[in-house]
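Worked example

This section walks through a single chain of length 245. The input is the sequence exactly as stored; nothing has been trimmed or padded.
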Amino acid sequence: MIQIARVTLPPPTVDRLSELTDKIAAVRPAERVGSARALWRSNSAVKGMLREALAVMAPGVQRCMYCGDSLGADIDHFDPLSRTPLRTFDWPNHLLACSVCNSHHKRNLFPVDERGRPLLIDPTREDPFDHLMLSLSVGEYRATTPKGIATITVFGLNRPLLVRGRQQARRVVVASLRNWSAARAAANETDMDEAILTIREQPFADVGHAMLRQASVPRADLIFGRDRDVLPTLRDPDLRSRLIP
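Given that input, the structure is written out below as C-alpha cells.
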C-alpha cells in the first residue's frame, strides 16, 4: 500500500454527486441505506466517471489501492455504504479495489477506535508507511501502529499470494535498477526510460517505494543483503526524481 494523490473531479461531476447525496438525505434515516443502494446501482454513468478518475490515481496499471496486486475493478466505499449512506456519492470516500480485497476481505468491515476514528488506512488521506513497514527480505508487512494492525488483518495484506508477489516484485525492481545503472553509464536514455517504466508499471508499487525509503536508513546494507549493490542507485537523485512524483 502506498500513498495516493486524489485528483479533482470536474465541476459537473461534483454537482451530480451532490444531487444524488441530496436525494438520499431527503428520505427518512431508516430508509437511507436502501435508497443509497438503489441510486448506486442505477447510476452507471456516474460510476463510470468515478472509475476513470480512480484509474488515473491508481498505482501501476490500475492496480488495487489496497493490495497493489490485482486489477482494481471495483469502486470501494472506504466507509461502507451500510454504515454511512450519505457518503455513497462522496468523492473522498471512493477507492479503487480488486474484488478479493473488496468483496472477500473488507466487505462491510470498518473497525474504529474508542473515539470512533477509523482504524483502516486510507491511502489518499495518509501515508501508509506511517503505520506499516514492509520487510523486503520476506515480502511481509509489519504493523507499527494499531491502524497498521487493523489494515493488515482486514485486507489480508500478508496472504501467501501477496507475499510471493512482493518477493518477485523485489527481483524485478532490483534487475531494473541494475539495468538503469548500466544504461546510465552507457548514456543510453532509451534503456534508462525502459527500466523506469518497468518499475513504475509493474504490480506491487509498494515494493519499489519501500526500497527507495529504506535505502537511506541506518544499516541499509543489512536490509538489502545480497542486493546491497543497488543502494547507490536507489540513493541517486536522478533516479529518485524519476520515480518519486
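What to look for: The chain has two domains: 11-124, 160-243.
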